[in-house]
Amino acid sequence: SVFAAAFDELLSYLLLTRNDFTFRDDYTDRDSFRLAIVDSLMLRPLDMMAFVDTTARRFADFGADHRKIFPYLAALFGPGKSVAQTGGVGAIPQKDNSGDIKIKNLPGRLHEPIQRACGILFDMQETLKQQMGGDWNSERNRFIAGQFKELLLEDVTDDTKSAETMDSLQRLEEQYAIRFSKTAVDLSHIPLLASLTSDTVDIFRQIDRIYTLLTTDEQLKKKAESGKPLLDMDSPYGRIVVGGDGPDTYRGDYFIIIDPGGDDNYYLTYDIAHPHPTLIVDCAGNDYYKAESDFAIASGAFSNSFLVDYAGDDNYIGSNFSVASGYFGSGILWDKKGDDHYFGDTFTQGAGTFGLGLLIDDDGADTYTGSLYCQGFGFVRGIGGIIDYHGNDTYTVQSKYKDILRYDDHYISLSQGFAYGIRPVLSGGYGFICDYAGNDVYVSDIFGQGSGYWWSLGMIYDRSGNDQYISFQYAQGAGAHMALGILLDEAGGDVYRAHGVSQGCGHDYSCGWLLDRGGEDVYSSAGLSQGAGSANGFGIITDIGGDDGYYIFVKGNCQGYGNPRRDYGSIGLFLDLDGADHYDGNGTNNRFWRTASKWGGGMDREILPAKVGEAK
What is the model's pTM? Predict the structure, then answer.
C-alpha cells in the first residue's frame, strides 16, 4: 500500500495516471501464435508486478504440490482458437490404453507403477501426434524438424562471412519464418500444456511410487544389489531398462531408464525422425549425463520427456536442444539434491517453443552454463523456465556468438529469463527464472536477465541472497519492440551492472521494470537505464528499502527519462522509497525531480511513512 501511494504520488507530480500505461495492439499485424499472458500484460503492463508475485507463490514448493504449476502454466497460453476457426486437424480422439506396452518379468510390486507410466506416456504421445496432424512424416512436420529450427541456430563463423552471404542467410531465415506462419496456423490453437496437465501430474505420481519401492522394498533392494538389470526389454517406443545398484552405463536412444543407484553414465541420443516419449528416473549417485545428439536429456521433440534425479552431485552435458527443452512437446528435468552442473549450447536449460522446457533444482550450489537461447527462454508459443530453490547458484551465458550487427566485441545472449519472437511475423513466448535462496550470480551480454523482444515476456524473480547481475545491453528488466521484461529481487545487498537500455528500460512500445524490495544495493549503467522510456516505451526502476547507490554516465536519459519521440511519447519513472542513498546522476535524497524530458522523473524518500514513528 505504501508503494502504491508513492507510485501514484509520483505520477501526479508528472501529470500522469495509471491509465497512461497501456499499449495499443494495432500497430502491427497480429499473428495467431501470441500467448494470452502477453496480450493481457501489454494492455496493462503495470500488472507485471502482481503477475510475478502470483507466479512466485505458485512455484514456491513444487515438490509439495506440483499440481499447482502445470495448470497455471497452461492457462498462460490462453484458450487459443478453435479447430473450426483454424481449419485444423479435427477433434482429438478419446484416450484409450489399447497401445500400452506390456511389461514382463519384472519382480515385485514395481510392475504396476512402471506399467502405469508406460500407459500415460503412450496416451500423451498419441494425443500430441494427433495435435500435430497425425503424421510425423508430413511435409510440414519435416519442415519443423529441419528448417524451422534453423531460426534458433547461429554459426560462430558468421563474423568472417561477407555482407552478401549474411544478407542471403538472413533472407533465407525470413522465408522460413514466413513459410511457418502460413503453413502452421492450425497449430496456433493447440493447448500443448493444457491437454497434458493431468497426465504430467500423474507421471510424477508414478515416478514417486517407483522411487519409494526401489528404496524401501527389501526384495527389490536385494535383487538390485547384484548389479544385474532388473529388466531389459524392447518396446515399440524403444528400450526399457531397470538397472542394478551399481555404476551402470547407458548408451543410445531409450524409452525408459530406471536406475536404483550408483555413479552412472548416460550417453544419450534421440532421433526426431522417429518421435517417442522418454523417462529417466535415477534414485542415487553422482551421475554423468551427456547428450550425443540434439534433443537429448529431458528434451521433448514431437514428444514429452521426463528426467528425475533424486540425489547426487550430477553433471548434465548438453548440446543444442537439450537439458530441459521442449520443441513441439515438453522436456522436464527435476534434480532433487546435490551440487549440480548444467552445460549446453543453444536452446537448453529450460527452453520452449510450442510447448514447455522446465528445469527444477531443489537443492545445492549449482552452475548453469550455456551460449544462446538458454536458462529460461521462451520462443514462439513456448514457455521455458528454471526454478531453483536453494544454494548459491551461478548462471553464465558464454561469449560465443558475436553480435555482428552492432558490435565487434560483444555477444548475443538472449537468455536468463528472456523471451523472443521473429519480427514481424511470429510472436514470442514466456521465459523465466525463479530462484528462491542463495547468493546468486547472473552473467550475460546482450539481451537477457528479465527481458523480452517482439510480443513476448521475460522474467527473473529472486527471493533472497546477495546477488550480482552483470550484463551489457537490453537486460535487467528491459523490453524492446512490443515486449515486456521484469526483474524482481526481494531481498539482499545486490549489485546491478549494465551498459545501456537496461535496469528498467522500455524501448519501442515495450515496458521494462526493475524492482528491488530490500537490501543495500548498487546500480551502475552508462545510458538509457534506471527508469528510461524510449520510442513509445515505459521504463520503471523501483527500490523499496536500504541505503542504495545509483551511478550513471549519461544523466540526460537515465533515472526517470521519458522522451516525446513518435506518436504518444514515452514514460520513465524512478522511485526509491527508503534509505539514505547516494546518487551520481539526477536523483537527490528525499526529493522529487524531473529530467530533461517530457514524461520522466523520480522521487526519493529517505524514510518510509510507515517508519517515521520508529525513527522518532
Answer: 0.95
